[in-house]
Design goal:
Blueprint lengths: L2 E6 L7 H16 L3 E6 L5 H12 L5 H25 L4 E4 L6 E3 L8 E4 L2 H8 L3 E5 L2 E3 L5 E3 L5 H12 L3 E6 L20 E3 H9 L7 H9 L4 E5 L7 E4 L11 E17 L4 H11 L7 E3 L6 E8 L4 H11 L8 E13 L9 H11 L6 E5 L2 E7 L3 H13 L1
Parallel strand pairs: 1-2, 1-9, 2-6, 3-6, 9-11, 10-12
Antiparallel strand pairs: 4-5, 7-8, 11-12, 13-15, 13-16, 14-15, 16-18, 17-18
This protein binds adenosine-5'-diphosphate, aspartic acid and magnesium ion.
């Protein structure tokens, strides 16, 4: 008998028929003799609709109340799924995040799980119940509801699997696994049998939303056996592991992120300490900076350019102007119509020419590169947003066709 955590995303529970389909998968797993814990997301576009509702009331809803609102989406799905499972004559109990013991910090909207008190979940399992847990939510030390950030149910599932010492964690979604590119955008994308935690973490961070990046980070840390598979086809999916099968693949995937802005601070003094001050200020505001380029000094000035998420642009500029004295009146140039396109794969470390091949694919479609960043397992380029889909297809064709 195994203990299995199964997570179902919003699209998998969007309609009554889909809830019944999920109930069938869960009931089959339970009847095969396993203990089953299920983590579910809000149905379909519920979370987006709730955000919309908040903005119909006020432009700047408070973060605490926003979490109170958004957490309600998952409450609906757990109750409906428990009912559907009971209709199939299997015992099920639904639990909100706090009932399942999710304790988080107080960063509303982007809370981090501090620990999970699994006593209630274990007691329900001991009573032979299928336990259905609301993903995406927890409770802070003031007993206020928190949420983990968009796509956070993946993290709830992996964290619960780690805390329970589950035998495996299955992430069911609307595609059959992790592909070499988004299969909805690139029709000849190939499903991977396996991928390493490190590669998956890069892909997820660089835009492949099939798994939330924090869930991958957590799976690696706690060595959780993770599989991404379809709610609809009952075929084997993609396993995420420490060491993946050698598939002779130079790269594992191509991905894009359009939530990127480029900020350039023009003609800053060419003296020591400027970069230190700029990036310390950004770090103090919790702004994640990605690609950084500093130009060669000309005369006694240089330019500093970096990318960050679009939502952080105003805060970043404000913080730099207010806190870095030398830059209070410097010209700051912002470009929000850009996209980051990346290739990921552990194979590239030992193969020269991967970057050249990627750049050739961009040249083939006459796409100009604004910035480049590399690491051992990824290469990212910043390009015009309206070229992003074409760029992904061209790069994918170059490596996989
Ligand atoms: P869920 O609602 O189940 O959490 P998501 O919408 O968050 O599902 O993630 C699944 C989607 O991720 C797929 O429908 C697919 O379009 C997208 N996706 C992006 N990149 C990839 C990739 N490399 N492999 C598989 N799916 C991907
Ligand atoms: N319902 C939340 C969202 O839409 C969490 C999730 O789906 O993982 O982001
Ligand atoms: Mg998701």
């Amino acid at each position: 008998m195994s203990l299995i955590v199964q997570k179902f995303g919003g699209s998998s529970v969007a309609t009554p028929e889909k809830v019944a389909n999920v109930a069938q998968i869960v009931a089959d797993t339970y009847r095969a003799g396993n203990s089953v814990v299920v983590v579910v997301s809000a149905q379909g576009d519920t979370t987006d609709d709730l955000i919309q509702k908040a903005h119909e009331i006020t432009e700047k809803p408070g973060k605490r109340e926003m979490d109170m609102l958004l957490a309600s989406g998952e409450q609906i799905s757990i109750a409906l799924l428990a009912m559907a499972i009971e209709k199939m004559h299997c015992p099920a109990v639904s639990l909100l995040g706090w009932q399942a013991g999710f304790n988080t910090n107080s960063a509303h909207g982007a809370a981090r799980i501090k620990n999970i008190d699994t006593s209630r979940v274990r007691a329900e399992l001991d009573n032979n119940n299928i336990v259905i847990v609301a993903g995406f939510q927890g409770l802070n030390k003031y007993d206020d509801i928190t949420t983990l950030g968009r796509g956070g149910s993946d993290t709830s599932a992996v964290a619960l699997a780690a805390a329970l010492g589950a035998d495996k964690c299955q992430i069911f979604t609307d595609v059959e696994g992790v592909y070499t590119a988004d299969p909805r955008k690139v029709p000849n994308a190939v499903k991977l049998e396996s991928i390493t935690y490190d590669e998956m973490l890069e892909l997820a961070t660089l835009g492949a939303q099939v798994l939330n990046n924090r869930s991958v980070e957590m799976a690696k840390k706690y060595n959780v056996e993770l599989e991404v598979l379809s709610s609809y086809t009952r075929k084997p999916g993609t396993r995420v592991l420490e060491v993946a099968d050698m598939e002779k693949m130079l790269i594992r995937g191509v991905t894009k992120d359009t939530d990127v802005a480029r900020i350039s601070i023009i003609a800053v003094p060419d003296i020591p300490g400027i970069a230190f001050k700029v990036f310390s200020v950004l770090a103090s505001k919790n702004i994640n900076v990605d690609i950084i380029i500093q130009s060669i000094g000309r005369g006694d000035t240089k330019d500093i350019t970096f990318t960050c998420a679009k939502e952080h642009v105003d805060t970043a500029i404000d913080a730099i102007r207010k806190n870095v004295g030398d830059l209070a009146d410097k010209k700051i140039d912002v470009d929000t119509s850009c996209a980051k396109v990346s290739i990921v794969g552990a194979g590239m470390e030992t193969h020269p020419g991967v970057a050249a091949k990627m750049f050739e694919a961009l040249f083939d479609i006459n796409c100009n590169i604004k910035m480049i960043a590399t690491s051992e397992i990824k290469i990212s380029v910043l390009i015009d947003a309206d070229m992003a889909d074409k760029a992904v297809s061209s790069i994918h064709a170059k490596f996989f066709d």
